[in-house]
Amino acid sequence: MKKLSFLTTLVLSVLFFPLRLFAVGIDERINDVMAPITSQAFKIVFFSVTFGGITIPFVLLWLIVAALCFTAFMGFVNVRGFRHAVDLVRGIYDSPDSQKGEVSHFQALTAALSATVGLGNIAGVAVAITLGGPGATVWMILGGLFGMSSKFVECTLGVKYRKINEDGSVSGGPMYYLSRGFAEKGLVLPGKVLAFFFALMCIGGSLGGGNMFQANQAFKQAVIATGGEQSLLFQQGWIFGLVMAVLVGAVIIGGIKSIVRVTSKLVPVMVVIYISASLFIIFSHASLLPHAFASIVSGAFSPDAMYGGVIGVLIQGFKRAAFSNEAGIGSAPIAHSAVKTDEPITEGLVALLEPFLDTVVICTMTALVIIISGLYAEQGMDGIALTSRAFEQVIFWFPYILSVAVLLFAFSTMISWSYYGLKAWTFIFGESFTSDVTYKVLFCVFIVLGSAMNLASVIDFTDAMIFAMSFPNIIGLYLLAPGVKRDLDSYFDRLRQGQIKRYK
């Protein structure tokens, strides 16, 4: 009863928080309350270290070093496993006899992609280029390529240590490979502590980057498309948030199977819309491409680059790449754990496609459109507004299309992250109907809060929660990576010998 009482009190307090802020200036009041909290969380997570006079946030160094280590240790699996990963997604090796799991390789990939291919690709890239200049693009691409290896390791572990519940549903992710994997090595208490910390941060990440940031930027684009400051929605983010909360709530009630039914249809559509528009603008300005690429390359290594030279540009590029593709963060293994397979390695290989599609392909296209436009050098624009203006220069009606794309990106990201947060929530509070409903209501309330807050506060909270997940996750990856390496070598040996059966 104490647990139920605590959960009930928590939900009611959050539910009535917006009502206490009632009436005129509700958006401003929400921001006034939340801004100091987000600022403090950001300072804690993004503490900096200095080497040879160069200052860099420790969490970025943590992610970069891990990605490089896993790339080398796994024998450049991001390159040699790429073609087989595509075959796996195509279903060529899908066994009809596999009973464990809930979704196919393709559905697991689209569910995870729907969480990563989102507004980080549209608004996040604009933020990186605004602060770091065109050169940030190079570091985003490299962050994506090396991040493929981190994604492979964590998603393999997600399947290897997942929990199959009595009803056939699956619970997986870092919470489980930290607790179960460490227990195998006799490190029961450290594993439990790290698993709990990860789950706590994952809940915060689901409410921040997987929710508030998406709602915030979707609302901003809706205002732009409906008249800017003359729009009826202007400074009425909480109303927009309420509508989004109802739509999201209608999907997440059904769990992962309901989510993948939506994402498996939404993701291909929204990616095609966005990439088609990007390619149209890029090729219609083909004469400007040499200058754009020259700006990207020179800006990446110029000591006089924006935001403090080479290191500043590198930081912005890797920071946005990590936020966009979430490699090493530990979120994707939660979705990939639900896959129908008896070979954990196969899902790790499928997962390495995420950073490639998300960062190397989509983020690069966004960057090229923004750089070609030249608007990144202007003052007063950030996030989604900059991207929208860049597209509008060529396609005057594109802000309306972008509004639809942004809503699809935001919606798909929110429903996937709701699943991540739910699995973390139930890991802490237990698998029960009350626990399930409590989290889903809380998630919907934060959609309203995110729509009303300003971008700076949302990004600080988002970055703090999501990047904090990487601390326990990567510790686990380092400890358990040797087992993944053995499984990978065994799998490729059996593949070469024809022991891995093709079904198509």
Describe what you observe in this structure.
With 504 residues, this protein is mostly helical. It has a single domain (24-495), classed as Amino acid/polyamine transporter I (Up-down Bundle), CATH 1.20.1740. Helices cover 75% and strands 2% of the residues. It contains 22 helices and four strands. The chain has helices at residues 2-20, 26-45, 58-73, 77-80, 82-89, 105-116, 119-132, 136-160, 174-184, 188-225, 237-252, 255-284, 289-301, 309-325, 332-336, 344-351, 353-373, 383-392, 398-429, 433-452, 455-468, 470-496; strands spanning 48-51, 54-57, 163-164, 170-171. The protein has a two-stranded antiparallel ribbon. A two-stranded antiparallel sheet has the order 3-4. Strand 3 (163-164) and strand 4 form a beta hairpin. Helix 10 packs across helix 11. The radius of gyration is 22 Å and the shape is globular. The model is unreliable at 15-24 (pLDDT under 50).
Topology:
Layout: H1 2-20, H2 26-45, E1 48-51, E2 54-57, H3 58-73, H4 77-80, H5 82-89, H6 105-116, H7 119-132, H8 136-160, E3 163-164, E4 170-171, H9 174-184, H10 188-225, H11 237-252, H12 255-284, H13 289-301, H14 309-325, H15 332-336, H16 344-351, H17 353-373, H18 383-392, H19 398-429, H20 433-452, H21 455-468, H22 470-496
Antiparallel strand pairs: 1-2, 3-4
